[in-house]
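Lab notebook: predicted structure, single chain.

Context: the supervisor wants predicted structures on file for every construct in the current expression panel, including those that have not yet been purified. This is the next one on the list. No modifications to the sequence; it matches the entry in the shared construct table.
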Amino acid sequence: MYIDSHCHINFPELAGRLPEVFDLMAQNAVSHALCIGVELEKFPKILALAEAHPNVYASVGVHPDHEDCTEPSVEGLVALADHAKVVAIGETGLDYFRLTGDLEWQRERFRTHIRAARQCRKPLVIHTRSAADDTLQIMREENAGEAGGVMHCFTESLAVAEAAVDLGFYISFSGIVTFKNAAALREVAAAIPLERMLIETDSPYLAPVPHRGKTNEPGFVKHVAEEIARVRGIPVEAVGAATSENFFRLFASARPA
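Prediction complete. Output recorded below exactly as produced.
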């Protein structure tokens, strides 16, 4: 069994062919998927997807790349998260790669999400790109460890991974770990504790080898597990079992009764 801990099946590339998406998940033993919020305006559709499918969960948040959109408040995020199918706050964090200039608004938005997660006691889904030092600093300043969460689509160094784990966070690997030029990332995947690891697709983006260049989807997450199993020298079933249990440990409200 595998779980896709981070996907965007509400995006146009996948939303029009959801029956096929769910069929491929079933064929590849992908039991559950977490559909991630990136804008408040799109959250109702994500929640509707989660309500319509027992094995789909939702998060609520505003992505750090989205500049011209409704700005979240602590109170607003907490209110939207008050739903059984909403298991996390995010995607949130910092991205100094795609945007430049004065990004104080990103840092303030990140703090808002952390405060909301601590208040509603739901974990954070954190995005960081070219901003690891500031991301970790704000996590520490805002006591993000009280909420816990996951560093999604991880591409940073082992030192950053270990710092996040020390704060109580999980590390999630995407299809990037299968890419030819990702040797350093594979070293991270080999080194961090298996009990602190998740797998994801970030679909429709970042399709893993052997599907690289195609539209990604949750059914492909098994290839991430296969690569992690290869670099760790363990059975892929062990990766699937551990990451699935980790998912339900972190997103406790998603665990089946």
